[in-house]
Amino acid sequence: MYRKKAYAFFLILLIIILSACKAQTVSLSTEESAESVESPTAEVMADQTADEASEDAAPEEEVDNPDTFHVVTLHSATIDANWDKAFVQAMERVIDLKPHGLTIVHEIVESVPWADAERIMKDYAATGEYDLIFIPGLFRDEACATAAAYPDQLITITTNREGYDCYEAGKNLYVFDSSNLGYCGYLVGALAGLTTESNLIAATAPFPSTDINEPLNAFIEGAESVNPDVKVTITFIESWYDPPLARDAAEAQLNIGADFVWALVDGAFEVVEENGAKAAGLYIDQNYLAEDTIVTSAVALWDRYFLDSIDVWWENQINGTPYSGPEVAIGYTISDGVCDLVIDEDLVSQEVIDQIANIKSQLVDGTLQIEITDELPE
């Protein structure tokens, strides 16, 4: 009996000891498992925080490039004048090109009185709505004054550089040389020299100035290069626009035997047509004014003037490039496409057309070098 009780007591004690050991083992395993799971380091936590902040932050807004360009051109005459119409036609071509993808809005102001030019120019600059104020000649002092008063306003003007005393380089006023038609004047003279029957050709012109003298001197040189017997007579009417006076000048030239008249001013074509002579136009294709009389026109292609102005503005807007007009006027040659000759193939023989094309090719590639002077033509 005693043995049985002792044996039972021993079994109970053994069970208690074994149970305690098992519990201790389980407890140790749990602690080791907990220690094996590492806490995130400070670096990982920082990365996670940065990623979360990045996800929460608003995306940066992209700066859109300009898509519209506003330009106003200020004309001293109406745009019916061939000089001014040439600029309007050039801008129409540039609008179609959409440089830099821009939609171009062109406003035209005609018949600007000289006395009011500066006020009108400054009024447009003051609005801040125009990316470019473009002046097709004249108003030189007025352009200087406006540029100085509004240094953030881009202004460009076409004129000859001679005597432009108020112009200050490195600023917001850019000068484009308007004396670039000499090369095409040479071609008009060559055509006149090849087609004249009387060996007397003429030109009616406004004022003697750099941008008029150069094409006239080239006209004489071109005629003499193909016809050593040709004579040239030139009349200045001392006005930029006076059709009746231009008619009288051309009529006087026709009366002394001229059979070809280059009209550098409006008003001469009708009397040339009445006398059965031939004529040449300037700045635009003027054949529509006298289809059986105007055999050619020296066409001014002012497109580069607008395109370069837009490029200057674009660089300022996109890259912050300051406006800085150069020391000398910006000029181009026939190689740059500044002018061209339009010939009516129904009025000029193919032989003459081919000769003129060959001369032009030599001027473009530099094979033929001519000296274009701005001295008073003789």
What does this structure look like?
Helix content is 45%, strand content 16%. It is of the alpha/beta class and 378 residues long. It has helices at 2-36, 42-56, 82-97, 117-127, 140-149, 182-195, 210-226, 243-255, 269-274, 303-319, 350-365; strands at residues 68-74, 103-109, 132-135, 155-159, 173-177, 200-205, 231-236, 260-263, 278-283, 294-300, 339-343. Strand 1, helix 3 (82-97) and strand 2 (103-109) form a beta-alpha-beta unit. The protein has a 6-stranded mixed beta sheet with strand order 7-6-8-9-10-11, sandwiched between helices. It has a 5-stranded parallel beta sheet with strand order 2-1-3-4-5, with helices on both faces. It has 11 helices and 11 strands. It is elongated and about 65 Å long. Helix 4 (117-127) runs parallel beside helix 5 and helix 6 packs parallel to helix 7 (210-226). The chain has 2 domains: 68-179 and 303-333, Rossmann fold; 182-301 and 335-365, Response regulator (Rossmann fold).
